[in-house]
Design a protein that fits this description.
This protein has one domain: K homology (KH) domain (GMP Synthetase, Chain A, domain 3). About 50% of the residues lie in helices and about 20% in strands. Helix 1 packs across helix 2. It has 3 helices and 3 strands.
C-alpha cells in the first residue's frame, strides 16, 4: 500500500486538511476572504517544501490573499509543526490556482457558442 501512496502524498493530504482548519479557525487576517479554498498541496519528496494551491471566489482579491498568506506563513508553519509528526515542517509556498477561473471562462465560451448555434 505504501508504494501506491507515497509518504509525500500522505503528508500533502494531511497538510491540506490541517491548513484548511488553521486558516478557517485561527487566522483572523481580513485579507483572506471567506471564499478561500485550498485546492491542492504538493510536497517535495524530501518533505522540505509544500506548494499550497488555493482558489478564491473573487479573482480580484488574489493579491490581497497572497499578501495575507505571506504574513501568516510563519504562524501557520508553527501551528502545523504541532500537528504533524515530522522531524522538520515543510516550508510553505502559496500559489493561486487558476483552474476554477478557467473553468468559468470555458463555460461562458461554450454557452456563447451554443447561443450562436441556436440562432443559426
Amino acid at each position: 500500500m505504501a508504494k501506491d501512496y507515497p509518504r509525500s502524498d500522505r503528508v500533502a493530504d494531511q497538510i491540506q486538511r490541517e491548513l484548511a482548519g488553521i486558516i478557517r479557525a485561527e487566522l483572523k487576517d481580513p485579507g483572506i476572504g471567506t471564499f478561500f479554498t485550498i485546492s491542492e498541496v504538493e510536497v517535495t519528496r524530501d518533505l522540505s517544501i509544500a506548494d499550497v494551491h488555493f482558489t478564491v471566489l473573487e479573482p480580484e482579491s488574489v493579491d490581497d490573499t497572497l499578501a495575507a498568506l505571506a504574513r501568516a506563513r510563519g504562524f501557520m508553519r508553527k501551528r502545523l509543526a504541532g500537528k504533524l509528526r515530522l522531524r522538520n515542517t515543510p516550508q510553505l509556498r502559496f500559489h493561486y490556482d487558476r483552474s476554477v477561473e478557467e473553468g468559468v471562462r470555458m463555460d461562458q465560451l461554450i454557452d456563447a457558442a451554443r447561443r450562436r448555434d441556436a440562432k443559426d
